[in-house]
Amino acid sequence: MWKEELGEKGEKRTEWYKKAEDYWENQEVSVNGVLGGYEVVSHTDIAASSDFLNALKALPAEKGGPCGFEYACDCGAGIGRVSKGLLLKHFQKVDLVEPCEKYLRKAKDFVQSDRAKEFICVGLQDFDPIPDRYDVIWIQWVALYLTDPDLDSFLKRCKRALKPNGVICLKENVVVGVDGKFHIDKDDNSIMRTDEHYRVLIKKAGLQLLCEMRQPKFPKGLFPVFMFAFR
């Protein structure tokens, strides 16, 4: 399937990612824009993510704790909604990674914190984080734009970028209860995977799942959202 989408030698890989880049270049530079018109869910989203991070803080040693909370990386940061509302409330320092330059420019004004350290303009398929840098790498609503091979490679690079006891957190829309099936939206080449598909990819990348949580209290009609923590 991926050979069909990307070409025998990956010659269509750039074209694949350009579709998502073009889509986001045409969206509004605002919280409502980065949430696809669902600004109403922002508070509920942040609250559940904060609960998830608090659960990580409370993990006992036999379940993979304790986890550090000094330096985080916000992957697919957009205008910095998650950095401002979540990560800077739990961590001392945050780096923001975002492929769309106009969003990253807005993020500097939106976040307005000297604890937001690096603003890195690159797609995650090409992002190679500094080894042993982060306590938490937060990946939200952006893994769906990575192909399976690129997500595998990216997670392996993230693993190298973790400090001892560091954790990768992935929060994503999923399809629940469909055996191995997923759907590609040709408008932006986003991939709707099952929750089990993500578990398989996490394991394949040599990572161990520590805990997971389903996002509560989202409006009916939206896809289920799962959070996974692993290292």
TrEMBL record:
It catalyses: N-terminal L-alanyl-L-prolyl-L-lysyl-[protein] + 3 S-adenosyl-L-methionine = N-terminal N,N,N-trimethyl-L-alanyl-L-prolyl-L-lysyl-[protein] + 3 S-adenosyl-L-homocysteine + 3 H(+); N-terminal L-seryl-L-prolyl-L-lysyl-[protein] + 3 S-adenosyl-L-methionine = N-terminal N,N,N-trimethyl-L-seryl-L-prolyl-L-lysyl-[protein] + 3 S-adenosyl-L-homocysteine + 3 H(+); N-terminal L-prolyl-L-prolyl-L-lysyl-[protein] + 2 S-adenosyl-L-methionine = N-terminal N,N-dimethyl-L-prolyl-L-prolyl-L-lysyl-[protein] + 2 S-adenosyl-L-homocysteine + 2 H(+). GO terms for cellular component: cytoplasm. It holds the Pfam family Methyltransf_PK. Gene3D superfamilies: Vaccinia Virus protein VP39 (3.40.50.150). It comes from Chromera velia CCMP2878. This is Alpha N-terminal protein methyltransferase 1. Signal peptide: none annotated. InterPro entries: MeTrfase_NTM1, SAM-dependent_MTases_sf.
